[in-house]
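Narrative of accomplishments. A recurring question from our advisory board has been how the design workflow behaves on a single, concrete structure rather than in aggregate. To address it, we present the structure tokens for one chain from the evaluation set, followed by the sequence designed for it. No filtering or post-editing was applied between the two.
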């Protein structure tokens, strides 16, 4: 018999859509995939070369649970120079991707029925991760006029005696919104006052298009002490399949996270870690080139979406998504169930375009598209979305 815990877990919408798209493409269908959050660039040669060197140097044995010392030292240097936060090497734990880093942190912090505040819209896996470790996800409504960024008042209104941690995805998946320093300071103040941890998911922090990016932990010593910074190499280094992430936290938390990881997986692949090391020391220019390309694609996507009268969207300042408001189409789709699922299923069936229904992020009046794809796919995909909506209006 399966555990009762699994009965409350919702399968990943994004993985499910990706699998369906793969099946349709294998059948020869002309699918434009605007759903997946995966860079279309290859892993930089510097990362691949370092991994190959490690293989032939036989660096394939067990290593330290929190990760190889060389990579952790480079991450310490990166966080100091780029994020203005000073960590020691023993405060960094390398993991099998950012998802694993988050799970390690939640296991280390949450007891049964402890509550985690999750602002809406949220990344699809946050609530399921909380439930899997015995915690309770508490969803916090935010406002469109504030780009769905959570405010101190919204946090305080949701706090109970069981509140233990706040999720903060910055830049946001799915909206691409970025918090200012003042906004982060006000959030930190509330969390310090109420003894609440901040899980700062900064996996998209290198993909920003405007103002200087501010890490939560850099706000103050108090902020650093209550923050578990989550980051990794999937987005910035286009290393999704290498499964390499990390957490940075205070020494007590880092030791706990390392203890959890030691019993569950020992440590991440040494070869993946050497690839990450190679990226950090030799591939920063390639990362900046990727960001410039994303910015051009962002501009292309929003310029086209702005011409579709029935749609509105959150203007993305970072990451590589557009969160699109489809509420004006409610009457035209005439569904009694999920608006966003109906929209995405019909769009895929009629126009062969894959998008993610907003219900996956807790917001059924929205869909998410990704521009981590070619210009041709962006143009053709949004053209087909426009045609789909025009047909609804007939």
């Amino acid at each position: 018999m399966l555990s009762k815990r699994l009965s409350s877990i919702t399968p990943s919408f994004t993985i499910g859509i990706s699998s369906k798209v793969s099946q349709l493409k294998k059948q020869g269908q002309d699918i434009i995939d605007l759903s997946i959050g995966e860079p279309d660039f290859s892993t930089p040669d510097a990362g691949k070369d370092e991994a190959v060197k490690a293989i032939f140097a036989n660096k394939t044995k067990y290593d330290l649970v929190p990760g190889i010392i060389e990579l952790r030292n480079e991450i310490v240097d990166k966080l100091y120079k780029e994020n203005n936060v000073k960590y020691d090497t023993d405060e960094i734990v390398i993991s099998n991707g950012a998802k694993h880093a988050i799970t390690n942190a939640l296991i280390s912090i949450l007891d049964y029925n402890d509550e985690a505040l999750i602002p809406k819209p949220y990344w699809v896996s946050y609530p399921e991760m909380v439930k899997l470790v015995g915690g309770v996800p508490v969803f916090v409504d935010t406002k469109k006029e504030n780009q769905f960024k959570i405010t101190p008042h919204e946090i305080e209104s949701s706090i109970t005696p069981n509140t233990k941690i706040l999720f903060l995805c910055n830049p946001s998946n799915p909206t691409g919104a970025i918090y200012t320093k003042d906004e982060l300071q006000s959030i930190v103040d509330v969390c310090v006052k109420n003894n609440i941890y901040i899980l700062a998911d900064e996996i998209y922090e290198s993909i920003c298009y405007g103002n200087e990016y501010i890490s939560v932990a850099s706000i103050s010593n108090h902020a650093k002490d209550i923050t578990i910074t989550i980051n990794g190499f999937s987005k910035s280094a286009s290393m999704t399949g290498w499964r390499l992430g990390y957490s940075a936290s205070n020494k007590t938390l880092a030791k706990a996270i390392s203890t959890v990881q030691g019993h569950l997986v020992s440590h991440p692949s040494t070869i993946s870690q050497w690839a990450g090391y190679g990226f950090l020391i030799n591939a920063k220019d390639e990362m900046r080139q990727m960001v410039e390309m994303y910015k051009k694609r962002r501009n292309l996507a929003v310029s086209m979406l702005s011409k579709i009268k029935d749609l509105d969207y959150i203007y993305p300042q970072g990451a590589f998504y557009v969160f699109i408001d489809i509420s004006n189409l409610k009457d035209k789709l005439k569904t009694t169930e999920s608006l966003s699922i109906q929209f995405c299923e019909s769009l895929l069936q009629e126009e062969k375009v894959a998008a993610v229904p907003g219900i996956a992020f807790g917001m059924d009046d929205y869909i998410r598209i990704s521009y981590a794809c070619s210009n041709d796919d962006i143009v053709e995909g949004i053209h087909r979305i426009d045609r789909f909506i025009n047909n609804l209006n007939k």
